[in-house]
Structures are given as C-alpha cells and as structure tokens.
Amino acid sequence: MSGCDDKATNENDNSYSAAEIISGSADVQIKQKADRDLAIAKAQELYRAALYEGTDFSDGPCLSDDLMDGWVADIAHDPRQAVDDDPANQCEAYLNGTADHFVELNTDGELIRAQ
After folding, report:
1. Do the Cβ atoms of 59 and 65 come closer than 8 Å?
2. Measured in Å, how far apart are the chain's first and last C-alpha atoms?
3. What is the pLDDT of residues 13-63, one digit of tens each?
4. Domain spans of the chain?
5. Are the C-beta atoms of residues 94 and 36 closer than 8 Å to each other?
6. In degrees, to the nearest 5, what angle opens at C-alpha 108 toward C-alphas 94 and 43?
7. How far apart are CA 30 and CA 27, in angstroms?
8. Strand pairing partners for 101?
9. pLDDT tens, position by position, 69-99
10. How far lies 61's CA from each of 20, 90, 95, in Å?
11. Fewest CB atoms within 10 A around its CB: which of 29, 52, 62, 101?
12. Has this prediction a pTM greater than 0.70?
C-alpha cells in the first residue's frame, strides 16, 4: 500500500513497529516508561518533603526503600563520592534484591539516573 508506514507513533513521539504492537511489546515499553516517569516524580516529591523537614543529604542517604512496587529512591553525589558506595547510605531493598529498580537523585534533588 502506497504511503503506509509500519510504525505507529504515541504522544511522546516514540515509534513502534507493527510487530511490536501486535506482540504487545510496545505496551510493555510504554508501561515501563510510565513507571519510570512516575517513580522519578515520586522521588522528587519525597526529596522536596525531606528538604522541607530539614533532612541532611550530605551522606547520600536512601530516600525510600518502597518508592513504589519494585522501586527505591536514593540520594547520591554527582560526581559520585566514596560515601555513596557505603551500604549504610544505600537502599536496603535494592541491595537485597527486593527492589529491582531505582531512582537516583543528586543532593539538589535533580535526576542522576533511573533504571
């Protein structure tokens, strides 16, 4: 068919092939991105609440071991410092495998990475 494209585009301008749409893998990718975006937003909200309460972020503490199902929120320095690698300052749920994903914010509450 002339002019047909086998890619579909969602509102975030991500393209998915027909095979991804038919197999459902596009749905999985969309859900994973939505979960990641929600986890980041929740982590930044927790950061703001902790900042308001006067939390000291200098040691890069775990912000939440239960941010959402399978996710933790951690504070770290950017660039990373030795204190960030101290298990006492890391989220236990991630260390013990209870959580598979994390949001890492710097001491100013800005996203370092989320995966």
Report:
1. no
2. 40
3. 567 776 666 666 778 889 999 999 999 999 999 999 999 999 999 999 999
4. 7-114
5. no
6. 40
7. 5
8. 71
9. 999 999 999 999 999 999 999 999 999 999 9
10. 39, 6, 14
11. 52
12. yes
